[in-house]
Every structure is written in C-alpha cells, then in structure tokens.
Amino acid sequence: MKGKILIFILFTFLSNSVAIAQNDNLKTVKVKGLVTNAQGVPIKKGDVFVDSLKTGVRTNKRGEYKLRVPVKSNFISIYSEEYGIQTMVYNGEGIVNFAFPEKGEVKTKNELSKLGYIFDVEAFRNMGKKSFSEYTDIFQIIREKFSGVRIEGNTIYVRGIISLDGNQTPLFVVDGNYVNSIANINPDELKSIDLLKGEEASIYGARGAAGVFVISLK
User: Fold this and answer.
1) DSSP 8-state secondary structure symbol assigned to residue 46
2) Model pTM above 0.85
3) Same domain, yes or no: 35 and 118
4) 78 FRET partner, CA 20 to 30 A, in 21, 85, 136, 171?
C-alpha cells in the first residue's frame, strides 16, 4: 500500500513539474533596448532575432527596439546589413542594449542561414504556441501567456499597476469596444490577445491606468 502511495505522489510531482515547465515556455516578457555603432550613433532598420529566429521587429530611427520574448529564450541578436550581426546572452533582463564595434566583415543573409539563422518570421511567431482552442477558458490563456497577472475567479489583477483611484483591475477592449467582462469569450473565438501597460496603455487615458487587455475575435 505504501509503495502505491509513493508511486502516486511521484507521478503527481512529475506531472506538475512538466505542466509548470510547459507554462513557463509559453509565457513571454517584454524586452527593449538601444542599438548603436562604435561612435554611439543609433543603428536603424536592424533586424531583431531571438534564438536565431527572425522576429519581424526592427530598430527604429533612434536605434530602439521592443518586443515580447519567451521567458526561456537564450539569445537575442541584432542583424544590420551595414554592421553585421551581434548576439547577447539573454538572462531575463528587461533591457538589452547593443553596441556594435567598428565595421568589419559583414556576413550575408545566405551565410547566416547556413549558420542556422532563420529569416522566416513565422517560425518565431509560432514558437512555443498552443492553439487557443486547446484551452478550457480565456483565463487559462491569460495565466499562461502573461506574467505578472493574478486571477481570482473571473477577476483579473495586473500586479504592480494601480490606477489613481486605487483600481487594480484592467480595462477590456474587444474588437474596439469596451466591455465589463471577458468571461463569456470562447477560446475558439479568439484571434489575438495582448496586454498593454504603462506608456502603451496611455492612449486609453485614465481608464487604462491599470492595464488594458486588447482582444480581437475571429
């Protein structure tokens, strides 16, 4: 009997460990940074790669970039046709800056492809993704997709963000319309879901001070 109990406990522990690992692989974090050359001049139109996968994100005219990356990412790279490629080890930082050295030999896209870099952005977009239809409800999607979010029943709280009136619950925008609840949204109906915070949410004014979930339906 004791042996069966021990086996059950071990099986439960391993199952939970696998589930936690899978959830961690699905979560993303926001990363931003500045890319410059040896003289400190911003490098624009630099392609951002994560774990050798092109993300579709490029640096702007100020040399800045920002994107969400899986929490388990290992490397972030910047590729410039003028300066070449530079790679940084990623350890979960929110800011990763790049300073390219003096110009040297620049590898072509074909050469980088032979080294394992993938220029098809769909490979990055699908990395670690589960189909929305695989989830039981929208709250399960939010738990796995966004870090720093707490869910109690059908109420969502974004940690670390409180509006001026003390409210900690986010605003919900579904297909451009404000809604009070998203509990009735079927995962099969979802096209995309994103969480805006801080400056990104400022376009919604005071109503978005505690964060904004922007949802698109099929």
Assistant:
1) P
2) no
3) yes
4) 21
Last residue of a domain, one of 92, 125, 158: 125
Number of domains in the chain: 2
Positive or negative, the CA dihedral 74, 79, 83, 85 is: positive
Domain range for residue 48? 30-125
Residue 46 CA to residue 80 CA, distance in Å, equals: 5
145 and 74, same domain (yes or no): no
Give me the amino acid identity at 184.
N
Could you say which of 125, 156, 176 is where a domain stops? 125
- Considering the domain boundaries, does residue 168 fall inside one? yes
Q: What is the pLDDT along the chain (218 residues), one digit of tens a residue?
A: 544 444 444 444 434 443 434 445 458 899 999 999 999 999 999 999 998 889 889 999 999 999 999 888 899 999 998 999 999 999 999 999 999 987 767 888 888 888 888 888 777 766 656 678 888 899 988 887 887 788 888 889 887 655 555 567 899 999 999 999 999 999 999 988 988 888 888 888 888 888 899 999 98
Question: By C-alpha distance, which of 17, 26, 16, 18 is closest to 147?
Answer: 26
